[in-house]
Protein 1
Amino acid sequence: MTSAEPSTPFFSVVICTYNRAPLVPRAIRSVLEQTFTDFELVVVDDGSTDATGEVVSAIPDRRLRYVHRDNGGLSAARNTGVANARGRFVIFLDDDDEALPDWLRLLYEALDGDTRAVVTCGDMIVDEDARVLRVRVPTPLGPAFANHRARFVSGTFALPREAYHLAGGFAEDLECSHQTEFALRVLPMYRSRGWPVRSVDDPLIRHVLRSPERRIKTPEKILRGTKYILAHHEDQLSRSPRVLADYLAVAGVAAARTGDYREARRLLRRAAITFRRDRTHRLRLVLAHFPPLANLVWKARRYRRSPAAPA
């Protein structure tokens, strides 16, 4: 398949990487082996100190471009990737994930020629032995996300490059939940403009569930990231009380895990009031009044629950 303008690829796939020389070649190969061939691959090296540059540069494919930048974090690297992209649509893949061969073809077909649409797809969680643990598909996201049916995690959404810029790109001062925060801006923008959001239910991305030591976010990052989303999007989140309460609860537990129980109780109290039907929020609030017990519950294990959002 070719675009109307040979110099302008249809997709720009952006892979951002940092000190992942052993892992990133697999993600790159999964893109270069796509059955749909009208794409470019922009690999952004976010200041790696290992052999990432040499490994990527050794891959001989004219569709691959390597961009090096000083370390600035994932969101800044993604924005750099888009700044260097030429494609009509942009899509992101994490450096330790893998796209199935028909990934781009099925997304292209779902667009059905609409150059304004966002298209999203399903994904799967696999263990390090490639066994499928869970399959996830685009779902209705509720009023907080403008009532669209979509999925916004790495590899599962593509949008026009112009729409990416119109939405403002990724928030560079955010340390986690980057794609959820982006969706909170993109999806209402699409609703207000009457632009379509389309979905492919096939799981087209493999996310490898790595050992907790290699993937855990610190409670400090979770707290800062969740409070950032609350500060910038609380009015929108309040359209879905369950979702808003989940964000408050995640921030509350993260505050407890940092030792700030006063802040934890404030946030968990708000969660309990915001969505009274979920008694789990009340139980957390009670637990936060007994720090020694809460430490056993929340600090002895990694807190994995995420807000009910597309990321």
Protein 2
Amino acid sequence: MDKTPPTLLPTFQTLVIVGRWLLVTAATVETAVLLAYDERLLHPLGSPVTVVFALFMIYNIISLVLVHHVSIQRLPMVMLICMDLVFVGLASYYTGGSNSPFLEQCYLIIFVGALYYGLPGGTITALTSVSLVAFLVHLNPQWLWQDVQELVPYFLISGILTGYLVRQLHLWFAKYQQSEVRARKTEIQQEIARQEMDLARRMQMAVLPSNSPTMPGLDIAARVEFAREVGGDFYLYLVEGNRLGIVVGDVSGKGFGPALVSTSIVNMLPLMHPLNRPLAALVDLNREMTERMPDDTFVTLSMVEISTESSDIHLWNAGHPPVLIYRTRLRKAVASRNFNPGLGFLADWQGSVEAADLDVGDVLLVYTDGLIEARGPSREQFEEARTIEVLEKNAHRTACEIADELIQALNLWGEVTDDLTVLVVKRVHIVDKSETVLSS
């Protein structure tokens, strides 16, 4: 027979306790009413209702103790149901036959059988109740068959219908439980993923520069925004004497994996001394990428060396968007021409350097493709031309203001779906402290 699912047992035990108290209360009231107002309900053999009532109270005290103190898994439910049917049969026999109000308590017993054992339990309990009625009719032929025929179909209908509904409830609850388990697993996985992302973000933000370096004659600002909690964009500063090195890069992909790769590069590249051996450092980084990283992982980056004592700068590009330089004397921005393959594609990567100059008032802009590939409402990309337009319009501002204007223009343009890094360096006039003192 169908058994109640283990997860329903605590609830069912409560139902059994409540149901048993209702059964005791109903039968007690009925017996008291019969005893007080209808002395005709004494059996011809002379057995009074009081005997039935006394036996009933003893039996129910025992059953109440059982349901309160015995675990539902150890509760002899079959024995209780059988004893209920026997008692109802005896009580009905001595209190009016087919007209006895006790006989109607078979419905409660059938319901309990169906609730605990499902469709088979409801059917068997109903058939047992029908057999009990037939047996009582055999012992007491004066009962009207019409009354019996009215009871039997309702017993069967109650047992089968209740059992079917309970079975469907069991099936629904099992599916609900599986759904809850899956939902709980999903919540746990999402929480683990969130914690991992939070850890990765903290690790990534810890290795990215918290402040731009202070260099004479240079105004520096950087902005980074990730499409997710973490991303593949990175940047770093390299300072050695009067030289400043800037590296802006982008690891393919989004999320946790690229963030780990970018964090590794930020930690590893300074150890290769790129200011002293720039091309060799990039070759070494490419070798590390091809040997240690997955085949589908690659890196694009731009590296710029700026001198604080002269206007000379040097640029290295590995598959990255061109560096933009706004030239004050020309009043327009130009793009660098140097371009080499990205890192991680070729085991024997080779690159070249481009020399340029950065005069006072000139602005250097290094960025990732998240800037130029952002799409507007018509799915048109922001592109390099719009970047140059914003740069030329705001070149007179500070580096921080230029970076903020680029981010604002991009957000007004459309949707940013990729990681975004913007790094601005502006050559400014070096104020001589002695001149400041004399003028004051």
Protein 3
Amino acid sequence: MEFEVKQDCRYFTGDKPCKFKRLCKGCDKYDPVKENILIIKFAALGDVLRTTPLLYGLKEKYPKSKITWLTQKDSSEILINNPLIDEILAFNSQTFAQLSVRSFDVLVNLDKDKTASAMASLVRSKVKKGFGLSENGSITALDKDSDYALQLGLDDELKFRGNKKTYQEIVFEQAGLKYKGQEYILELTPEEFLYGLNVCEVLGVKEDTIKVGINTGAGNVFCGKKLPADKLMELIKKLSKLENVEVLLLGGPDEAEISDYIKSKCRAQVIDTGCNHTIRNFASIINYCNAVLAPDTVALHIAIAMKKPVVAIFGSTSSSEIELYGRGEKIASDLKCSPCYKNKCEINEECMQKLSIDKIYDAIAKIVKQRG
């Protein structure tokens, strides 16, 4: 049988069968790609997730485009099953070789990372937006739309206190698009949705209670992002007195120790959901919560993506860039040195030590009351 595989079709899926189960020649569904778009966003996982609203803007401007997303292997899992991404590439020597011969119509690099910026400068594209790498090895704006975003990385006063734009407003501006409140995109499969329910059933979580998820950690990059264990236990004891409320501990492998400690001290007042889930299964557990308390970390962004009411706490990082979409409350330290974005703190992370537990409790209780 004579047939023709048209790689310029927007439904072309490479080695996979056509979604319409037809051959290209004579197919009445054939729809050519008008623009090939490359997004470069390597890390971190939460930053990759909060970049996904940009896909709506790109698809609105380029409705018949094919979108390729270049990221790190560890971040690629959060993009799986995203209906607006046609191709996910994990950065390695093979993808580097592949991209060195491909060309695009639009390229958007949103990482100030030198490797990502070098890729943006090397890959052929008619239009380039975001960050690139200059000949002397410094990060540069590829056009005037990224001047402000570049300045944020150079001017601490602007980033820490002057900036009032959310991350989404900034990246839409870099891409030359208008931000209209587009939401995160995190699409779980039906099986993944059931994972959180099954875990909670095994742990004895009651179906008719209000579940408050508390993420106990915040990674190891910046100090002053997470509440100390004694403050968390104080909060848990207050929350456990609320009618029809169950407190679930959330976290990844780095939080196993603190979660075990809190569970041993609080006993019947908390349910530990475990710290060894994949990121997508972790999202399923968060989806089972009715409210989430989280520092500025991936759990916060997953909760936002799953449209959960959140109470977000901030010490060493800025709260202004976080978009809650009207679902929840931000509670930030009022210390003069906050935010600082430091790796080590000379004053024992007082930004988190002095954060008001009563204020955090009141914000969560408000959500619980609304849910009740």
Protein 4
Amino acid sequence: MDDADVDDILANAEKKKKKKRINSDRKGKRVERELAKVLNKRFEKILSEHTDWGRFSRTVGSGNRWGQNVQLGKKAKEFYSGDMVCPENFKFTIESKGGYEEIDLCSALDGGNAELNAFLEKATEDAKRCDKKPMLIWKKDRKPRLVFVKAKELSVRKIGKKSEYSVHYRDWIGVPYSFIFSLDDSFFFEEG
């Protein structure tokens, strides 16, 4: 038995317990860059017809701007509110979230969820700042994107159809990204 190779199971258990730490700032930026690509592809036709409107990109420093004493003009506020720089005439500001695996929609529907409330409040503040409509686009790991907009924006009377799957949360509606971005461009852009 002198030649037996014995593993220290306690040492191995400690190694397994330690999870790799996720850099949430880097992850958030990656999710925003991916979203910009997806949105530019979705709106490729209208943006190619209106090259002067610009394109989608992530807003540099979006999470820290409004805590500072920043005095921006109306146009600058439109571009720098939210997590995404949106083309001119886009009706929404976009708050982008990636991850947040601990938010469980089941528990959110049983008394609310403080973190989800904070996301929606941030989206609302950004939209008010530049007189646009709020939109939250949330991508959990290995799950399809969800989009939250104010419920009144997705009334059947207004858009002519209804998502097969949706979550009503306070005065918001959460729908699959695939549903909301199947809507006509006029839902997203002002004429001009």
